[in-house]
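FAQ: What does a multi-protein file look like?

Like this. Sequence, then tokens, then the next protein.
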Amino acid sequence: MRGLRASSLLLCGVVLIQLLAVQIDAQRPKTQWKTLSGFSPRVIARGGFSGLFPDSSLDAYNFAMQTSVLDAVLWCDLQLTKDGAGICFPDLTMSNASNVESVYPKGQSTYPVNGVPTPGWFTIDLSLRALTNVSLIRGILSRSDKFDGNGYTISTVQTVNKEMKPQGFWLNVQHDAFYAQHNLSMSNFLVSVTKTVIVDFISSPEVNFFRKIAGRFGREGPSFVFRFLEKEQFEPTTNRTYGSILSNLTFVKTFASGILVPKSYVLPLDDKQYLLPSTSLVQDAHKAGLEVFVSGFANDVDIAHDYSFDPVSEYLSFMDNGNFSVDGVLSDFPITASASVGKLKTLKTYKHFSASPTWPETQQNKLTKWFNVSVDFLVISKNGASGDYPGCTNLAYEKAINDGADVIDCSVQMSSDGKPFCSSSIDLGNTTMVAQSPLRNRSTSVPEISSVNGIYTFTLTWPEIQTLTPAISNPYSRRFNMFRNPNERNSGKLLSLSEFLNLAKNSTTLSGVLISVENAAYLREKQGLDVVKAVLDALTETGYSNRTTTKVMIQSTNSSVLVDFKKQSQYETVYKVEETIRDILDSAIEDIKTFASAVVIGKSSVFPVVDGFVTGQTNVVERLQKSQLPVYVELFQNEFVSQPFDFFSDATVEINSYVTGPGINGTITEFPFTAARYRRNRCLASKETLSYMAPVQPGGLLEVVSPGSLPPAEAPNPVFTDADVTEPPLPPVTAKAPTPTPGTPSTTAPAPSGQTQLTLSLLLSVFAMVLASLLLM
């Protein structure tokens, strides 16, 4: 079977080997966990690693076991075939997660499911032998389709058990009543299969199902878990809503030892997708003697804004928030759940925004102890914590500092009156609400900067700019409808460079500031503004020229700018390579070393990406570091759509791959909290290479893709040469003639009218006649 061969290849080292997967003692020793048993929460892999591979495929189950805690539980959605075989398949109907429609185009039927007529291709219409022709494919369209051509077969319960030999096995029976209507008995199948297969958990949303299987498995049988659906839905046996059953947990305890609930039962959200205070469900269930398992965890779906798109933060809020700990999580990405259970378990996720739950002070104090771990790795902000607040505002910078950034950054722009200030774009339309302000008529065309009109910083005075409302960046709003922290989308105020420097100077945790300078030549030639002098003056005025504790880094994509700074100061200079490159010449490196002490490159210059997959690894980082040039990489974001599939929609996995793989010297990130929490992981300080901290094997996932599904080859990225580095010196400052501000009275003299011109002509004629007569005298 190609799937198993591919899986073996993958798991032998072609892709990552247990990246961040925490291998804990199989005996699960008791800890400080506030679970019912005192053990750490269980990681339950829904259909295996179904966030990447087709749900319930053997590769999905195999990969889940290899990247999860040792006692991870494999979840199987149990369905019955026409001849009574038990298979693992995610739903009652098959068209969504298999190619059954193309194999049996006339096989559609319509049956009542919980009283609702439901069309589809049902497992009860096909024998196990007929299903051998059907292959598993992705069931969620937003996930990669590259593994759909691997021909993954549908497996029986016995096959999954035999091939995987899981430490824990969970069978979910979603539609017992439906199968009973078609003379197929789930209870009889379960009693039979448990004679040869160890089943640890059986779950169902139907009360009557538990009544039928009660007492049929003996004292050493599986644990029964009652599955709650949405609160407004009706349980078919009792004809009560699941919400009403929730109020009587002692009733549930009569037939089950645990409950499985959606996330909202524990941490509900308001209509804006912010967290509300946690419910008392976990504590109430524990008092009733019931374990609480929570479903719905996936890295590639929208989560509460409070988590800043970080799935680890979400897991920790359920597992270890100081008030309770759930007993297990059902996840499509068990690697992230495992990392949360294991080495990150003492890193509490505390309050990000005012809407977040309040974390106990003792937990926050524990968190600070992790700062003592020394790792040579810088966390550099990108416009502050611009994933949480409008970039380059006081709130974005303050959050970046509080979140553990080492270096905060300011992209310097110039106002028309020569004030340097922080803004991520020279076009204020990209960073503020200027288009909705009285200054919206200031749009101009500057082809040297952009092919489209904009309202540029150098066309407004600093007092005018201070009146503008900042706007949060939403890079994935149009294509993916993903929005950052909408409650704070216009919060904060823009800072002058001096205000930024004073804010950083007053911090006791920052090690440095990074000041980015672009468009210096244009500003000198066309606007009469010297941004280099403005930056140096601001640094001197705020006392940085004499400071030794706070490092100052000046960054630019222009070598001429850095040469100019180097001539006039002793500040560290950082050269940013804008292009995505596959290599860099020695001569280019030598040129860079003459004016820069560090280099910034893009993520794809380290791990090239084609069609969402990492294709390999360049040697750019290695070559620069061999020449004693530290390498900082940008841009790291938490949104899963910003990451290749190789990183499992987890920003922490991505960061780990860059740090422990090519060994970059720092991340430039819009979400400093995630990078800083990762850096505090004690595993990074270990002298030994731990298996769960191994980096992604570049191009590994593509090795598992069938040849017919491989993405087309793309032209290679260019090699960076010394010609790309060399630039002419910055031009001198050209004084700019004053121009009237639109909408204000002109100060220039009015053009002479026709009558005035005639009068002047006559006067000149008279003057000429008088002068001629005098000369003749």
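And here is the next protein:
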Amino acid sequence: MSMRTKVLGLVDVMMRVPPVLVIDEILKIGMGLPTRFYPDTSPPQSPVAEDVGFLADADTPGAAAEAFAALKAFFGLGDEAQSSMTPTASPLEQTIDNASKKAMTNGMLSTGFNSLMSELSHDETLADVLSITTVKFMICLFGFLSAACIFMLWTRHLVMVYMFLTSLGLTFLSYWSNVSALALMEQSPCILEDLMSLNTTRLLDSGGVIMSLAPHVMAQWFMGMLFAYIHLGPRYELLQKSMPIIFTSPILIAMLPLPPHVVQLLPAIAGTTPVILTLVTMMCSAMEASRTVYNGYQYAMNFVSNFGLSALIENEWQRLNVPNVLRVFWTIRIIQGGYALAIADSNEPLQLFPAIEKLLVDGCETLTAVLGMTGVISMICHYIGRGFQWFLMTYDNDEEKSLGTVSAVLFYILALQTGLTSLSPEKRFVRLCRNLCLLMTALLHFLHNIVSPILMSLSAARNPSRKRHARALTVCAFLVVTPVSLLYYLWLQRSISTWLLAVTAFSVEVIVKVLVSLATYTLFLLDARRQFFWEKLDDYLYYVRAFGNSVEFCFGILLFINGAWILVFESAQNATGGAIRAIMMCIHAYFNIWCEARAGWSVFMKRRSAVHKISSLPEATPAQLQAFDDVCAICYQEMYSAKITRCRHFFHGVCLRKWLYVQDRCPLCHEIMMYTDKAEENVPDAEPAEADQAERVYPRDDANNAGSTRRSPERSVPAEASEASTTASTSNSALVYAESIVEAAAAAAEARTASVSSSSSNASYITASNQPPTPSATSAAAAVATAAASSTTHIFRVTQDQQ
């Protein structure tokens, strides 16, 4: 990317920031609507008490009691002392109080309800309040929609809008400057007399009127030239050249001896010309603006019909460069708040931590501010992932690419479902810290998803680089120590709450996942040191992963119960957050509980069925293995033990069991491997002489076994000891490759899709189950798996010859 492209991109981002600032200011005043009916009469909570309640949710029993008391007072069901209004009540509060007393007297559902509504409709105070509120809301809504439309314009249209606004602003700025200059001239002697009398003493005085008017004249001349250059109205040559003179004319004409009332009209007369040009521009651009909006609508409809709504959103997201715009907006907002704190008149010196707390609280005051903070957090998480990726010496990881996006979505959903923008500043800071803590635990999960494949590849590939092993193990140690330290501090310093239970569940889940990855990594390393094929490896891996998935499933149920408790008992005052939490709970219940339970049970049943089928097959005797003198057609490794199918093919028992996860047909001839009514045919004759067994020819697929190197497992010639050791050292990698072949076939047969991450009570997401693939009995799976196995034959043989 060239420097010119980067600069133009930065300019485009900066041009889209002002509309976001306008939207933020409109949201800051609540769209002109009253934000609350009653003032917050609760005493301010001390910092110590707020710190003690850090873990307690905002909707504590005391807060619920206060809300219930306020509800009773609103409907007139409480004591008169509780429902009495303060002397400083607003007109709207007095009206509501009158309505409450009327409801208490007649009842909301009594016959006096109609008279109550009639009284409210004739209440002048309420009518005035509603009329003012309606006007404010309509103005704010118009400003909000205008700013949103300007934000979404194409760059060339955006430049035209800014040129129009700049010309309009220059007109008002010129008027203000002329008024200020005429005020200075009114209080000073006549400048024309000094010029005609050549009174240099007064003219050259540094504090005189001439020196005071010089900046105004220069500014007016510059504003006239700039207006002539950027205005979008008719461009007549004479008018363009005379524009600086028109802007400066009030100051020049005011030097003449004119009546005061005429001098006061000079700024308005000079501003008439640019105002007329601006009005002409508006009238000429109205049709073009409406045409642009209509063309944009047609473009969006055509794009949706051709590519879908998600593609349109993604395309517009990239075109508008929304993440960078939000980051720049939030940075400007924080810099503005920091500057206001720095120049504030205060006898006490500015303290760092209270200032940071104030900036963070103001940084999530509105929805747009939360979006800006989300963009900054997304960038931070992205670079954290890049840092760990660099430390692990890996440069191609999809998990790291999605880390920033998933973190941003998670943080914003947490902010919405906890009602972050509607809380008071003290409670908002506490809730923000809790959300960031939950985000940190989620970040640990994402980091584990980065390091886990690296551990598996290092152990399965027999990577001799100790440096890469040490780096991966260091990250695993970090992922264990960090949640343990966090839980120790939280349980030691804070009281139990629903939020603490959620953080504990996420942290323990991270620890269990890391331990499962380390156990798998250790099993593969142990297998690499073995000289013979380790048939129990698959069982041990299954038990370890089943334990990890069971723990994750139990914590998923715990988080669902915890979220249900929060939804029922702690989200009554936040309707929007409660609705979002309910949706997240439904997603969590389906993907993280139901789908995981169904998949786990399916894997368990398929595995049990495969074990039962394998146990029914006969075991090959050493004489049969010597006579067969070939490798397993699934993993291409020598067979020291094997199972014999009814079609007389030899396979490792563990390899055949993995194949049975996919289908019940033979990997070589695709014949059904067993019939219940022909089980006796599967038992081979074990009594023939060794000469007969040596001459026996077993049918097998020549396309797969023709070029295989024949070795007898009973050879003990010293010259081939090193070759046997080399073959044994490659057994594990071939087994892992065979597992990938079977899993690929299962994926093609079942078309299993990965579950999408989602938040529950305080963010929940789906992790990979790492279970064996779901079996399928379709012939398409057999074709895919066989083709994959055949395509790897040459690769394995080349590797074997090189070794």
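Q: Is there any per-entry metadata?
A: Some entries carry free-text notes. For the entry above: Residues 36-92, 102-113, 676-803 have pLDDT under 50 and may be disordered.
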